[in-house]
Design goal:
alpha+beta; six-stranded mixed sheet; 12 helices
Length: 490
């Protein structure tokens, strides 16, 4: 009994000492820290989040736009369910969920544009957890940046009490000026030696001249004349205004939103599809040596065959025969069915024909796969379905990626002939014009006959398809159209 009382008294004394120690520790730290750690602790929130990030829905995608959310906060989500619609660089693709859970928080609302890959767009929690208590991660720390100039120093009025000193000459030796820079400096009578060249090999560019013009204390409106300086107390009269209709020395500043003023413009935001089209067309014309070859094809046999099929309620277009003819020609000449990679040519095992479809957002090329092994009626059904999905923005990535040969048909718009730009990494694209009736002399019986001629132009990559190979390909393509029975036998 005495031993128990002794142990109990020692325990109480130890507890009092520990309490004093905790008070000392608490006093040494700010109380805000304890509150912050308490409210940020998992014990308080209790729900960890499943992160939903912006995915890469196409090989060339770098950012996307969130078109529409298909799930609301608090709604149950199963693996494979559609979460939202994302506009990629090619089409609008539905993003599916990889996990089961509950949609807890949408971080990127509908209409969010230029969302980079990997950006956190939503949070989910596991089933059975309180989605309202989801732990929202703090935003990523932004890189330190300088304070805005408006906050650092107020903007001064244009009329300063004392003009800044003139810049010191920055160049020595022979001067090299661009034509635009020479015109600006001579017009305002500014010494070119005062400009700081930023162009290659000491070239003074237009931007250098404009920067010098802004830094000059009093730019003149007329060129400096070689005359002795004579100071005069009388004020110099202002230069007369330029005559009506004359071209100003400096173009007026473009002011958005003010139509009618000279030099105004309206900013049009570019969609992801339009930016990718611009990037790929620039890449094609600057890195691929284009070669062109044209040929006229007699479409009389195809027109007659179309009428016979229409009597049997089989509706196919001229473009369907063109796709079939190109696919069969590629099957007969596999050396044309190639693409270019960084290491060199690549021979393709399958024939996938890309057809150009114009949409409101730009041009896209859905693919008819294994076109050489399909009939004209099956090609027609596939082409109609893909064209409609392209206009609706519902193409899947596998439906527009991986083509081996492209066809662009502008015949329905009355275009007689044109040259198309190659779609890299493909080697060729075939441009189709409209058909026209022409009288030609028949060599067999020396009589005049009317022919339905259609001009096609092949744009080929000179590194893969030389002129002789392109000529033989066009010859087989023309034979397939002028004798459609060949396509069934090839």
């Amino acid at each position: 009994m005495a031993a128990s009382l002794r142990l109990g008294r020692q325990g109480i004394l130890y507890g009092l000492k520990l309490s004093k120690f905790n008070k000392c520790v608490w006093a040494t730290q700010p109380w805000q820290e304890h509150v912050r750690h308490f409210f940020q602790s998992p014990w308080f929130l209790g729900v960890s989040a499943l992160k939903v990030q912006m995915p890469a829905l196409s090989p060339t995608m770098e950012e996307g736009n969130i078109v529409k959310w298909l799930k609301k906060e608090g709604e149950a989500v199963a693996a494979g369910d559609a979460l939202c619609e994302i506009e990629t660089d090619k089409a609008v693709v539905t993003m599916e969920s990889n996990d089961d859970g509950i949609m807890a928080k949408i971080l990127m609302e509908e209409g969010s544009r230029n969302v980079r890959l990997g950006t956190l767009i939503a949070l989910m929690v596991e089933e059975g957890q309180d989605w309202k208590q989801v732990e929202i991660p703090p935003p990523e720390a932004a890189a330190p940046s300088a304070p805005p100039p408006a906050a650092a120093a107020p903007v001064m009025p244009p009329a300063a009490p004392s003009p800044p000193p003139p810049p010191k000459p920055a160049t020595s030796g022979p001067l090299r000026l661009s034509p635009a820079a020479r015109h600006i400096l001579e017009t305002h009578g500014i010494d070119p030696k005062l400009a700081t060249p930023t162009g290659p090999r000491g070239l003074i560019t237009k931007e250098d001249a404009l920067n010098l013009l802004k830094a000059s204390p009093a730019p003149k409106a007329t060129p400096v004349m070689a005359a002795p300086a004579a100071p005069s107390p009388a004020p110099t009269p202002a230069a007369p205004p330029p005559p009506a209709g004359s071209r100003p020395n400096i173009p007026p500043l473009s002011v958005p939103g003010k139509p009618g003023a000279p030099g105004t413009f309206t900013e049009i935001p570019a969609s992801n599809i339009r930016r990718v089209i611009a990037q790929r067309l620039t890449q094609s014309k600057t890195t691929i040596p284009h070669a062109y070859a044209s040929v006229d094809c007699d479409m009389a046999a195809v027109m007659s065959l179309r009428k016979d099929l229409a009597k049997e309620q089989i509706k196919v277009s001229v473009n369907d025969f063109i796709i079939k003819a190109a696919a069969v020609a590629l099957k007969e000449m596999p050396e044309v069915n190639v693409t270019w990679s960084g290491d060199g040519p690549r021979a393709l095992d399958s024939i996938h024909i890309s057809i150009a479809v114009a949409t409101d957002k730009g041009l896209i090329t859905p693919i008819i796969r294994d076109a050489a092994n399909k009939g004209v009626q099956e090609i027609s059904a596939n082409a109609k379905a893909l064209a409609q999905k392209a206009r609706d923005g519902k193409l899947l990535p596998e439906e527009y990626q991986g083509g081996s040969f492209s066809i662009s048909n502008l015949g329905m718009f009355g275009i007689s002939g044109f040259s198309a730009v190659i779609n890299p990494p493909q080697a060729c694209i075939l441009a189709i014009g409209t058909s026209r009736a022409e009288l030609q002399l028949c060599e067999d019986d020396q009589t005049l006959r009317t022919k339905q001629l259609m001009t096609v132009t092949l744009s080929s990559d000179g590194r893969l398809v030389d002129d002789e190979l392109a000529s033989r390909f066009l010859d087989k393509f023309r034979a397939n159209l002028e004798q459609p029975q060949r396509m069934a036998l090839a």
